[in-house]
Amino acid sequence: MDITRRNFIGAAAATAAALGSAAALGGLTGCTPQPEASKPAGDAKAEGADVSANATALNPQDEGYTANTTDFSALFEPLPMGAITLKNRIVKSPAGSDTWAPEGDTLNDNFLDYYENFAKGGASLVFVESSISKLMAVKPLEQAATGWLLDDMSKIPQLMAPVTERIHKHDAYAGFQIGVGMLTEDTTVINDMTPENIAWLKDLIIEMSVQLKAAGFDVVELHCAATQILKYMTVARTNKRTDEYGADTVENRTRFICETIQGIKEACGQDYPVQILMDAVEENDASLGNSDGFLSLEESIADALAFEAAGADTFYLRLSVPGRHIAQFAPDLMFTGYQCEGATGFGTRADFSQHFGGIATGQYSGCGLLLGATAAFKKSLKKASVSCAGYMDPRTAPDLMNNAVAQGEIDYLMITRPLTVDPELPNKLQEGRHDEIAPCCRCMHCHAKGGPAEYASDGKEYCRVNAVTQRAYTEEMPEGYALLPAEQPKKVMVVGGGPAGMEAARVAAQRGHEVSLYEKKSSLGGLVSTARAFKGDHERLGDLVQYLSRQQEVNGVEVVLDTEVTADVVSQATPDVVVVAVGGARETHLEATGSVNVVSVDTLVGSDIGESVVICGAGAQAIDCALFLLAQGKKVQMVHEGAKEIIDKEQSMWVRAFVIPHLYSQGVKIWNNAKIGSLTDEGLSITLSTGEEKTLGCQTVLECYDMVPNTQLADELGSAYEVHTIGDCDTPFDIAQAIKMGNLTARAI
């Protein structure tokens, strides 16, 4: 079944849901035919699944991993862990939050509310991370410990009790991750530590555990993964010591961690839970195949057995990719980008059937990537419980997660991103309100800190879907997480059913306003529905549209479809406030010739596309289209009038880190700082930054410039109403900024 221009633009979300992203390719004239989908034999989880159309491709995908039979019973079974018993199997993992105040010597409101919200939302155990330099910094060679918590450890109970009290108030337990320093491949610290340095570091961790317990923390985690000092003590390629702490035997390489576990148990009680965060298996992602000296699954299990014998109660596993640290805890980044599953960020692609010892579960778009490893650990360990990192999202993959717990492959889910998007995820899931859970889109804006001001992050971290996270208690949102009721309920008319409009309608209605939402098409979603067709389903954009659409119903918003709003329509509706969210406008500057045709994003599907394509633009939409075209076997070049540093600027820095090297590796040439000229029968003429003129041969040009504002309706309304323009019609950029503007505007009405 083909997708024509008309039904693609008008009902992309419904079509993609019915056909799957692979089927959506049928409407692009000239595409390489795809073989019929097949289902892996003997895979019970794949029952009824839509497997990737190209079954012979690298890392073929099973789209059935999102199945939902509404049986979440295993996720809400209790779980003993040392002296405590978790009320369910959903745990907030110790990942960065960016909520810590830069000044002051008390825990700020954002930090406290942030962690309390997870407990209030139903998580059974909430971990606080230690990756905040203001909290703690350790230099073993100097025997120096500095930071808010370590300057005087006797003050830890007083300093940290407020957060544990907030967590305990909601029948949840509090955990703290102890990390004592990240290193590079420089092994100086590991190999130069004297016995006195080692004893000092061990005593420091033990004493800190004692004080954390006194502060109310019910569990401590030892960070023994990634590039931490404790991890490098266990790896032969980094630990070159020749004494009893060397890496020549399992006993020696695990000695320091085992002694530390034993010391914590002696000081805090044998039933005080100790969790070990460790890598299950490594791969040299920077040089695939060259993995001598990198950790194997068998080695990590042998280490875990030693840790368990020393007293470890539970294990939290990661996939180790030393070259791209972000993928240690967000390995689903290796699946970002259309049909480039396994991308390493170095222009290569991992084969999950062979790399990482073949243990990675790579057919679910990064979801549950380490389930094979957790199952292997559980078969070997005596009684310790096991979890893992890697997008263990029960909102996206309810059956997969529930069945993994029920079948004994894993004991509990360690998650942060899905809970950051919707802290109420556990409660909503248990109450059968799956369709009311805000979805994580795996965009990684939440860890995208730094970069040029033109980037989407602008030096800040935030959530694409939850506009409150990281903005609470700032100048933008001084009221914090609370959504204040309207002082005076008003009649609010929202024009445009994209993410900005739907978020504005949702928030305004929750505050008590009478809200109507108008959309000129027959379905909600706006440009997100178009984006989904080019991105595929990895970012769960279909889920986002479904969630925001459902929120209109839940909050009593009147939705009016198939209605193009004019000034007359507004006049007839008699609103007090009009929120204009009609989307941005597209520009076109080129005219087709006899041999070169010109298409836009809106007309790409259904158009005749030649084998060689030049894309004008290098923003997120252009990059997504480039990936899409590459998957069809097209040869692609891109012309970017801006600097190289701001290619794909609307995406998070981490998505760019994986996608751009993949484009380069597939032969895509991006001409930066180049001026677009005109079309000839040979192709597109451009002027390089050197002044040189060049013609790029092609059969098709895709115009995908940055969108421009579209304020025509707002201008027509003038001052007759209180008018707000939001999203792309005001400041074209990305989904995250559109939702932010919708939220903040609705809060201000």
TrEMBL record:
Ranges in a coiled coil: none
User: PROSITE patterns, per this entry?
Assistant: PROKAR_LIPOPROTEIN, TAT
> Which intervals hold domain NADH:flavin oxidoreductase/NADH oxidase N-terminal?
75-180, 196-277
Indicate whether Signal appears among the record's keywords. yes
Which positions fall inside the FAD/NAD(P)-binding domain?
Answer: 490-721
Instruction: Specify the signal sequence span.
Output: 1-26
Q: Which Gene3D superfamilies does this UniProt record tie to the protein?
A: Aldolase class I (3.20.20.70), FAD/NAD(P)-binding domain (3.50.50.60), NAD(P)-binding Rossmann-like Domain (3.40.50.720)
Q: Give the matching InterPro entries.
A: Aldolase_TIM, FAD/NAD-bd_sf, FAD/NAD-binding_dom, NADH:flavin_oxidoreductase, OxRdtase_FMN_N, TAT_signal, TAT_signal_bac_arc
| Cofactors | [4Fe-4S] cluster; FMN
Keywords of this entry: Flavoprotein, FMN, Iron, Iron-sulfur, Metal-binding, Oxidoreductase, Signal
What's the family? Answer: In the N-terminal section; belongs to the NADH:flavin oxidoreductase/NADH oxidase family.
Q: What is this protein called?
A: FAD-dependent oxidoreductase
This protein's species is: Raoultibacter massiliensis
